[in-house]
Each structure stands twice: as structure tokens, then as C-alpha cells.
């Protein structure tokens, strides 16, 4: 016979069993929740690590690209340097030497032959226009000489950046009448070779270099002029002024055309033309008037230098005495004319 207490306890067994089962179930649920939470934490950590790795890879790619851009720039500079660092040579190889030139134009009204249009380096192909424009520029020099040096006498003249003698040819009469000594220098060997072949011996013509150096003695020239040369000198313009000053005699005259606000506005007017777009800065195409003090843009044949007139005057007068800065002097020109003097002492 069963003890009555045991009988009562037996009643409790099923609920106790149920309780124990639900505790096990609760523990299993808790473990499942904990496992799931650990899974989520691991997943989050994996995603964060992947993101960090992607960012690091992106940063490395950006750094590589930056380095490549810098290297490209440096390589470009060093590749241009041999071409740009000295002069624009004749092509020194057996096939092309001596260089071929189209036959010059010989006219009964001209003592000197004209270069064929291909050898006029951008100046008019029409003979009359080529001669007229050269004469108008020569007149600018002649007038500056008359204003500042007085009556014509025996003078030594240098055409700085003479090309194939477009302006220099027009001083042949002064050479004959007053013994003017005529010199030309240009960094392009080809037009210099053309001059050597076609101009008389009394023209001393020399291939120059873009490094500021001229093949003349100190204090040896009365007048140096240049048309549209400082308009392209982007590097070392200040040292060029000092070099020109070195070879000028005390009291000697420098006449150079430059680009100022006038040229800026002129080019801006033609901003839709290919020849302007190819050679000029976006800023110049966009802005109708010159807002910056100066702008030096582009390289080699398409480098362009602009100064505000007032800035050019101030900058140039550090090296030479600025006598005049004239606006464009004739209908075919859009360049100002800087006239300077080397001080007497
Ligand atoms: C636009 S062209 C003008 C040519 C010539 N002055 C004329 O008016 O017919 C510019 C000339 O300057 C030359 N040039 C540029 N920089 C020079 C430099 N530092 N020394 C000598 N010539 C230079 C060029 O080779 C080119 O022949």
C-alpha cells in the first residue's frame, strides 16, 4: 500500500516534468538566440572588414593614379625639354639634308627674293600683302628710331626672332644709304638657313637658343626689335630682357611687340575660330576682357604671353627704361609696341 504522502507527490510529478521540459526548451531557445546573435556579430564584423579593405584598395588605387599623373607630367616635361630646351633644329638626317625649300619668289620691284608662301611661317601667302605688312612693321621701327635716336646714321640693328626676314628685308635701303648693319637671330634653324641661302652676305643671321643668350658682344647694338616674339616667350622673359640689355649699347633702343588687353580682346572676338581655339587658354576664350595681371599659356609653337599694359610697363621698367607703350600701330596689327632704352649708365 502506498504512503499517502507519496500519492500526493505523485500528483506533482507531471507538472514537475512539464516544468523541467519547458526549462530545457527555454535553455535551447536561449542558446539559439545566443548563436544567432554571434552569427550576426560575425557577419557585421566580416562586412566591416570587407568595407575597410575596399576603402584601403580604393585609397591605394587613387594614390597610384596620382603618382601616375605626376609621373606623366614629369615625363612630358622631360620629353619636351630636348626639343624646346635649345632651338627648333633642322632635321639632322641624311634623307632631308640639305633642307628642301620651294623656289623663292623673284620680283622685278624687289632687290631681295621673297620666301615662297610655305617659308613665310604664317604670314600672308599673297606677295603684296606680305610685303605691305612687313613694310608697315619696319615703319614702326624707323619711326621709333627717328623719335628717340634722331637722324639715320650708321646703326647696328638686330631683328630678334627674324624668321625668314619679313621685316629685316625692309632695311636694305638704310644699309645701302647709311651703312646699317643688319643682324637676325631666330630659334628656328629652317628660316635662318633660308636667309643664308637667299639674302646677301651682309645679313648676319644666326640660329639662336631659347636659353637667354645672344651671339653678340656687350654694348654692341644700337637697336633691337622684335615682332610677335615676346608674345610667345613664356619662360625666362626677364632674363631675356637682361640679355637684350647686355648687348644693347648704352642709350640703345629696344622695340618689341607684346600682347596686352588689346590682343586679348582681339583673340576673344575670334574665339570660335580654330586657329584661336588651338592656341589659347580657356580663360581667354571665356572672358571678353583681361581680368588677370598676366597669362602665359601653352608650349613650344603655341605658347602665348599676355600682360596687362600697366603690368608690362611696371615689369619691364625694372630692367630697362620704358619710353613708350604704344597701342597697335596699324590696321593689320593687334599687338602693343613697347619701346625701351638701355640707360646711358
Ligand atoms: C610669330 S613669329 C614672328 C616672326 C617675325 N618676327 C615676323 O614678324 O615675321 C615669332 C618668331 O620668334 C621666334 N622666336 C621665339 N622665341 C625666340 C627666342 N627666344 N629667340 C629668337 N627667336 C625666337 C620664333 O622662332 C618665330 O620665328
UniProtKB/TrEMBL annotation:
CDD domains: AdoMet_MTases. Keywords: Methyltransferase, Transferase. One of its GO terms (molecular function) is methyltransferase activity. The keyword Transferase applies. Residues 158-255 form the Methyltransferase type domain. InterPro entries: Methyltransf_11. Its EC number is 2.1.1.-. Pfam families: Methyltransf_11 (PF08241). This is Class I SAM-dependent methyltransferase. It comes from Falsiroseomonas tokyonensis. GO terms for biological process: methylation.
